[in-house]
Amino acid sequence: MIKLVIGQKGTGKTRRMIEMANAALKESKGEIVFVNGENRRMIDLKHQIRFINVKEFQIKDLKVFYGFLAGMISRDYDTEYIYIDGLLDIIDDDLSDIEQFMFQVKRLSDKFKINFIITMNGNPDNVPAFLEQYIA
């Protein structure tokens, strides 16, 4: 499953993601990972959630980020949830690469039964058609 949370900057997407991740601890039997590009909100996550500041790994494009996600999953097949906060802030790619990235993430999700919850800045009313199916 993939869910997208799209909204303008400052609308509470990160706070909502943190609440979702903390709530998932109650039902999850696997590992929960929270990926972000900064450390400032890390303190709000419960300590059982694995936090990764992706900026520490100098990831700049979606192909490398996909490889990073695949490597993370191969390290721990018990991963059940991956929260990716601010996808467009993490990478420097053009939006045209998002469609291929989402296709690849969907394959990961289906094959390994991982729930991906991803936030993006933007207007939810102007989402490309290929993303509409994922909007939460």
What does this structure look like?
- With 136 residues, this protein is α/β, with parallel strands linked by helices.
- The protein has one domain (2-126): Rossmann fold (3-Layer(aba) Sandwich), CATH 3.40.50.
- It contains five helices and five strands; from the N terminus they run βαββαβααβα.
- It has helices at 13-24, 62-75, 87-90, 98-112, 129-132, and strands spanning 2-7, 31-36, 50-53, 79-84, 115-121.
- The chain has a five-stranded parallel beta sheet with strand order 1-5-4-2-3.
- Helix 2 (62-75) runs parallel beside helix 4.
- The termini are close together.
The count of domains is 1
**CATH homolog superfamily:** P-loop containing nucleotide triphosphate hydrolases
Strand order of the largest sheet: 1-5-4-2-3
Question: Nearest-angstrom radius of gyration?
Answer: 14 Å
Strand content: 15-25%
Assembly state (oligomeric) = single chain
Head-to-tail CA distance between termini: 11 Å
H/E element string?
EHEEHEHHEH
Helix percentage? 25-40%
What attributes does this structure have?
136 residues, alpha/beta, Rossmann fold, 5 helices, 5 strands, globular
Short account of what is shown:
It contains 5 helices and 5 strands. The chain is an alpha/beta fold.
Could you outline the blueprint of secondary structure elements for this entry?
Layout lengths: L1 E6 L5 H12 L6 E6 L13 E4 L8 H14 L3 E6 L2 H4 L7 H15 L2 E7 L7 H4 L4
Parallel strand pairs: 1-5, 2-3, 2-4, 4-5
Helix pairs in contact: 2-4
